[in-house]
# Entry
Amino acid sequence: MNRTIRHLSLVTLAAAAVLVPASAALAADATGCSGAVVSMTADGSKLDAAAAPGSGATADTPLTLDPAGSVAWKGSTSTAITDGTWSVSALGVTLLSGDAANTEKKTSAAGTTDLSTIPVLKVLLTGSAKIPVSGSITGTGGSCTASGYVTGTGSVTGAPLFWAGSVLTLLGLLLAASVLTGTKAAVAAAAVTAGGAAS
Amino acid sequence: MTAKRHPVRGFVAGLLLGLGVALLLFVLGVLPMTVAWLGIVTLVGVVLGVCLAYVAPVRGAA
# Structure
């Protein structure tokens, strides 16, 4: 499989990671492409799956990914997209991107992507966070866009964001307590100050 | 009688508390991790923090 098709397929991977759920308002979305994905752990055992159109990768039932694992995917676009650009992003941050010449004008592909090559996923994909992801490819002949939700594996307390949130919450509570204890009558405060100055 | 209040301290307290609670809600999977939810929860924290500064009981009042 040539490089262009691999890029095209990465977008399809995003589509497959997102896919179209049947009903819910929080459903994932895919336009101009379809596919399926199976997530696997680091030792190669199956973890989760989703399909587009089909089930999975919604806010209610996000696709579970192992940041040390991989995803096996297959997908297709409605039309052959050539001379295009593609990108995959999470939380609005582009994780992968590139050009897609697709000189062979293929409309389908399959493969496996190693998630451990994307360092930011180790931070995000721990705990139960529901992370919005999206992907797109645009070029001559059409376009494909997709979005949906993924989640991670492992203990919540193993997530760096959990500890960051805990520290911020604790600091906020301490500062709020100081607001409560620091609210004093101005007259009394002035008297204390004056008394302190006199003594 | 006037009271010495701390709205700026309340603002910062609410900001930290809002951000912290938002991150916890994200990690626990209660809310989807989106910029919109981060903004909403943080804003609620800031409003509560500033309100706390203005409604906190006055210590040392007669």
Chain B has two helices and one strand. The first helix of chain B runs from residue 7 to 27.
